[in-house]
Structure formats: C-alpha cells, structure tokens
Design a protein that fits this description.
Blueprint: E1 25-27, E2 30-32, E3 97-98, E4 122-131, E5 137-145, E6 152-157, H1 164-167, H2 175-180, H3 209-215, E7 223-228, H4 231-234, H5 243-255, E8 263-268, H6 277-288, H7 293-299, H8 310-318, E9 323-327, H9 331-338, E10 345-350, H10 366-379
Parallel strand pairs: 7-8, 7-9, 9-10
Antiparallel strand pairs: 1-2, 3-10, 4-5, 5-6, 6-8
The structure holds guanosine-5'-triphosphate.
Length: 390
C-alpha cells in the first residue's frame, strides 16, 4: 500500500536491504551484464532544459570514489561501456539495456518484491492538456482506484497513448461532459462540440483512437518512469535527494523529438518511499543525527522501502502499454511494476544517472551523496560511474 504504515517492524520491507547479485545475460549478438550497465546516452536536445533549481555548483568532475558501487562489474567488462554522443543513435533518445525478469540473470536483481495477487482497479476520471514552460506538451491524467483515495497521476507525452477508462462512454453523459473530462481526440478549441471518439454521442470532427493506433510506431515501447512523490525534492529545492532532477530529466527525455513511441510518467502518491511526509521529515532529523536513509526509516519502525507498484501496473495497462522501457536504477522496481503475472513486461532499463555525475548541470551536496551511496550500498541500485565516458 502506498499509505504510511508505522506499525510495521523493521525488516518488514517489501523489498530492498542487501545488494543484488550479478551475472551475465546472453543476448543476440553477444552478452552483457545488465546489472552493471548504466547505459545513458546524452542527447543534445534542449527541448527540456536541465533542472530549474540548481542551488549548488555544477559539477564537471567524476563523483567521489565513495559512490562507485563495489558490487558491479568493472568498466572493462565487455558490453558495459556507455555509448557516447558520437556513436549513439541520437534520434532515438536514450539507450537502454535489455532486461528480463523471468530469469535470475536478467538484470532485475535477486529479490522478489511482494506483489498484490490481483491488480487494483483504476479509472482515469479526467485528463487535460498541459503546455509546459519548455514548449513541450503533455496530457495529465488523474486516476481514482480501488485501494486508496489518493489522486495518482499519469503524465503522458505523445498523442497516441490513450486511457481506456477515460474513453469509455459514461451512462447519460453529453458530448460537453466528455469534452470537459478530457475524453476527446485531437485538440480543444473554442466552439468545439463533439468529442470525436468512437461510440460517442455525435460523430467526431476529429481523428479516432483507431486512427491514432494505426499511426503509432510499432517498433518501440514507450519510455516510462515510475515516480514516487517527493515534496521536498520536487517543490522546495531539497538537495537531500535527486527526485526533482529525475522527474525533470524523465520529462525531458520523453519530450525529445525522436521519441516517437511517447512516454509516461506514473506519479504515485507514496511520499517518502511510502512513509509519508511527516515521517520522512523525522527521518531527515535522524539523518542529521548520523543515520543513513535506511537506518533512519528502520529507527522509526518503518520498512526501508514501504512502496508498492500495483497501481502503476494497472495504470499502464489502462494506457494500453504491455511492454515498456523503464527509466530507473532500482532493480526491484522492474519486477514490481510488471505485476503478479507479468501483465506488463519491462523490455529495457534506461539508467538515470545524476546530471552532476555527467557534468551536465545538476547539483552537488553532501546529503545527496549520502542518499545515493546508501541506495547503491544497501538497496542494490544499479548506479555505477565506471562505465561512463571519461
Ligand atoms: N524515507 C525516505 N524517503 C526518501 C528519502 N529521500 C527521498 N525519499 C523518497 O524516495 C522516493 C524517491 O524514489 P524514486 O525516485 O521513485 O526512485 P527509486 O526507487 O529510489 O529509484 P530510481 O527509479 O532509480 O530513481 C520519493 O518518494 C521520496 O520522497 C529519505 O531520505 N527517506
């Protein structure tokens, strides 16, 4: 459950604690080590500028040695090199590494996160076009669900990704109702009266969703980021974590002109890895008293990570996505988002490397360094500078 659960005992975490293993996975054309691959292609497109909040000094040097994960394969391992700008296929955006959660060596860690037996029901109740300050545009989808009463969100980049539950005709609704709740195709404009969806009450004046499906490029799965709410990092410029930067970078990558398959940020209301803002602030005080991020959670009698991802799986299915490319360093997230019966399959993992590690802006602070170090050392995150270009 996303909600805070202070009654749980330390060690009761859904996942995390301990490092993941690693092994090689055979793929057509060679082998690679998904667990150690932090493939990240720099795409020189500024459709989405780097973090607006840049409180600290931009970094051009490598991260401190303390952040180099000892658990991953050294940079000389075949197949782990990060493509650089010159070699990369720039129009396609960031490169991922193939992953396969159905085999132990598939780059998804060794732990099995506890999953709900049945996916929750979700309904997209409204969507609206959001023009953004970068010029890129996305559609914000707001969902209700059968397990909590929070507004979970999907930020959809690309016009061909549609919500089934949004498009379903509601009993007794008028075309104006449909327009107001966002169940229309194309764009709204003054004077428009028809939603244009198949099965809608009047004939559409616009393309149908079948047209949209026909336009969709078949080759690529969309880029997806499952993001958990972080008020401190996203809204009040905290340098304790890189959540704000990750959210912005995900949106930038999804907005790149070459990203024809589109992108989805599933924004889950599980603040503070599921313990809530109040408890996270207590954890910050414990961190200032010397605990790391995992220890602080455990001292507060929370799991190291109290999150779940069933809602994300259900929302992705509602948005018609059965295969995705996932932006994450967290191996547990890959398994968890696939759902109990692999309803969604993660085909590739795309690494999220802090911008400052790449000399691409971002920020540095001792707090975020400690946060990332704990993720690598205690939570098995696949973040490693060894394979990045020097
Ligand atoms: N309890 C706790 N939560 C934190 C802390 N710092 C950040 N968070 C929360 O951690 C969550 C961010 O995690 P995500 O960005 O989804 O990613 P992740 O699972 O760490 O892995 P990536 O996908 O690789 O980024 C947000 O809910 C933040 O509020 C902390 O010190 N303590």
């Amino acid at each position: 459950m996303p909600a805070s659960n202070p009654g749980k005992l330390p060690g009761d975490a859904t996942h995390n604690e301990g490092n993941i293993g690693q092994a090689e996975l055979s793929v057509p054309g060679g082998s690679f080590d998904p667990a150690s691959s932090t493939v990240d292609v720099e795409v020189e497109d500024d459709a989405w500028p780097s973090s607006a909040a840049q409180p600290s000094t931009p970094l051009t040097q490598e991260p401190p040695a303390s952040l180099l994960s000892p658990v991953f394969t050294p940079p000389s391992t075949p197949g782990t090199a990060t493509p650089n700008n010159a070699k990369a296929a720039l129009p396609l955006g960031p490169l991922g590494v193939p992953v396969d959660s159905s085999i132990p060596t598939g780059g998804c860690g060794t732990k099995h996160p506890r999953l709900l037996e049945k996916l929750p029901d979700v309904v997209c109740v409204v969507r609206a076009r959001i023009p953004t300050v970068t010029g890129a545009e996305m559609f914000l989808h707001l969902y209700t669900n059968s397990v909590d009463n929070k507004d979970h969100l999907a930020l959809v980049f690309g016009r061909d990704i549609r919500s089934k539950t949004l498009d379903t005709v509601r009993e007794g609704e008028t075309e104006m109702d449909r327009l107001v709740r966002g169940a229309y195709t194309g764009r709204l404009c003054p004077g428009r009266t028809a939603s244009g969806l198949p099965g809608s009450i009047t004939n559409g004046e616009d393309s149908t969703s079948q047209d949209a499906a026909a336009r969709r490029p078949a080759q690529a799965a969309p880029l997806v980021r499952i993001h958990s709410e972080c008020y401190t990092g996203e809204t009040v410029w905290s340098a304790r974590c890189d959540c704000g930067e990750q959210l912005e970078e995900a949106a930038r990558l999804m907005s790149l002109p070459g990203n024809e398959a589109g992108g989805i940020i599933i924004y889950l209301r599980q603040e503070g890895r599921g313990i809530g803002l109040g408890e996270k602030l207590k954890a910050y005080n414990l961190q200032d008293l010397g605990s790391d991020t995992v220890e602080a959670n455990l001292l507060l009698r929370h799991p190291a990570d109290a999150r779940s991802y069933g809602l994300a799986t259900a929302m992705l299915l509602d948005l018609g996505q059965k295969e995705i490319r996932l932006l994450t360093n967290n191996p547990d997230k890959i398994r968890a988002v696939e759902g109990p019966n692999r309803e969604v399959v993660v085909k590739e993992r795309v690494a999220m490397v802090p911008l400052s590690w790449k000399g691409k802006g971002g920020f540095r602070a001792p707090e975020v360094e400690g946060y990332l170090k704990t993720k690598i050392e205690k939570m098995g995150h696949m973040l490693d500078m060894g394979s990045l270009p020097r």
